[in-house]
Amino acid sequence: MRANCSSSSACPANSSEEELPVGLEVHGNLELVFTVVTAVMMGLLMFSLGCSVEFRKLWSHIRRPWGIAVGLLCQFGLMPLTAYLLAISFSLKPAQAVAVLVMGCCPGGTISNIFTFWVDGDMDLSITMTTCSTVAALGMMPLCLYLYTLSWNLEQNLTIPYQNIGITLMCLTIPVAFGIYVNYRWPKQSKIILKIGAIVGGVLLLVVAVAGVVLAKGSWNSDITLLTISFIFPLIGHVTGFLLALLTHQSWQRCRTISLETGAQNIQMCVTMLQLSFTAKQLVQMLSFPLAYGLFQLLDGFLIVAAYKMYKRRLKNEHRKKNTRCEEGCHNKRSTSPKETGAFLEVNEEVTITSGPAMPMELHTTLEPTGHISSGT
After folding, report:
1. pLDDT at 78 over 90
2. What is the C-alpha separation between 187 and 180, in angstroms, rounded?
3. Using 50, 70 and 90 to split pLDDT, how confident is the model at 143?
4. Which of 50, 54, 280, 283 counts the highest number of beta carbons within 10 A?
């Protein structure tokens, strides 16, 4: 699906001579910042997160790809369908509807790997799902976009950013491979690298969020409808991904992983695809949505992590209370056991004292018939 460049207005290369609308330069600077930060983030973070991956577990997911299959179904089944239904339900303009649909058809982003690590998810499954969804995007993105835009009569075709997909795959696989090797050779050092990478990842995510808000002040002129969709879209992805994983009898750890993978999309790929397919004037209406989606995606991820940490702390407190109650109960049993033993002995002593004089008579009566029998013989 390539762009139709028969006219100068349909091809972004020819439209570069036009006057750039207000706010497009901001988007260009924002794209540059996101490109640099994303490249650095993906390289360092995927290396550090790769240090948590064990080759045996990774190979087990590849041999039995049930979790991967559920994740791909969520990524290229639920998300494009949700985007299409949202665009129709809110009666969006054609340019805005295309931006929402492109976001829904994009593969998972590396942000999900960071959040998965923070919620104690299955890192092997998370990295495998991100890689597989990026590979599957080579064919699934054109297919989903073709199926859902049949009734929309677009003026120009959508251009799939195959080069961007290839770069993403390289940034995923190469650092992860080094991380797996480090974890295999130096497991102790890999744990330290993993902790440092998690902290650096959190800082970089905050930097991206702040940079997005500051650099895109002039682009927040979109209507409240797009902002509403950008807020609820990732939430719907998280919830539906978790429910589908739960219905397919996945473990709780995998359910958390698939949920985060479903709601987290590759923002850079969406922006690149829109820039390759539409003119400068159209981009002004479109680029505000992926930017808002990315920011709300970060916010939702932090909220999920905070909720999980609170839940985990609550379980620890309940476990501690149970342990203290058990220790107190065991201590009370130990302290009362000598008294109970003494009382038991006192009762036995009373029984033996009271029953002592009667014993000879009972023995005499029991032995007396035996004596008669023996004397008779």
Report:
1. yes
2. 10
3. very high
4. 50
Quote the distance between the C-alpha of residue 341 and its chain's center.
Answer: 57
At residue 335 the predicted structure's pLDDT band, cuts being 50, 70 and 90, is low
What pLDDT band is residue 331 in, cutting at 50, 70 and 90? Answer: low
Q: What is the pTM of this model?
A: 0.72
Q: Is 354 exposed, middle or buried (0-12, 13-18, 19+ CB in 10 A)?
A: exposed
Which residues have a Cβ under 8 Å from the Cβ of 204 and sit 6 or more positions away? Answer: 37, 40, 41, 45
Alpha-carbon span 190 to 50, nearest angstrom:
9
pLDDT tens, position by position, 26-47: 555 555 665 666 666 667 778 8
* Distance between CA atoms of residues 41 and 35, nearest Å: 10
HSE-CB for 93 with a 13 A CA cutoff:
10
User: How confident is the model over 215-226, as a mean pLDDT?
Assistant: 65
Element (H, E) at 111: helix 111-118
- What does DSSP assign to residue 108? B
Angular region, 120: left φ>0, alpha ψ -120 to 50, beta rest? left
Q: For 338, which DSSP code?
A: H
What single letter denotes the amino acid at residue 279?
Answer: T
Tell me the C-alpha to C-alpha distance, in Å, between residue 216 and each of 33, 228, 283, 292, 322: 11, 18, 14, 10, 51
